[in-house]
């Protein structure tokens, strides 16, 4: 169950990172509220997952999910470059997340 909570925390991590772009420097009220809410939910879920998971692995997976998801959504939503090198690096992050989940 802790891993499911951690994945949910990572998804909210993606939500607030992408949300930052829509806040326009926190000058837009609704995106700012949603982004702040996602931040709180993400950290609370991480804290719950840490009850049962080692902090080093959980934090790395949490940030990894956020990093990969944000990078991919940045390419999709904001036309950020999807170069081969960038995609390979994202793949390495995914491999690291998998290694922490299944081997650590």
UniProtKB/TrEMBL annotation:
The keyword Transport applies. Keywords: Cell membrane, Membrane, Transmembrane, Transmembrane helix, Transport. InterPro entries: EmrE-like, Small_drug/metabolite_transptr, Small_multidrug_res. GO terms for biological process: xenobiotic detoxification by transmembrane export across the plasma membrane. One of its GO terms (molecular function) is transmembrane transporter activity. Pfam families: Multi_Drug_Res (PF00893). Coiled coil: none annotated. It comes from the Bacteria. The chain crosses the membrane at residues 33-50, 57-78, 84-103. It is a multi-pass membrane protein. It is found in: Cell membrane. Its main location: membrane. One of its GO terms (cellular component) is plasma membrane. Belongs to the drug/metabolite transporter (DMT) superfamily. Small multidrug resistance (SMR) (TC 2.A.7.1) family. Gdx/SugE subfamily. This is Guanidinium exporter. The gene is sugE.
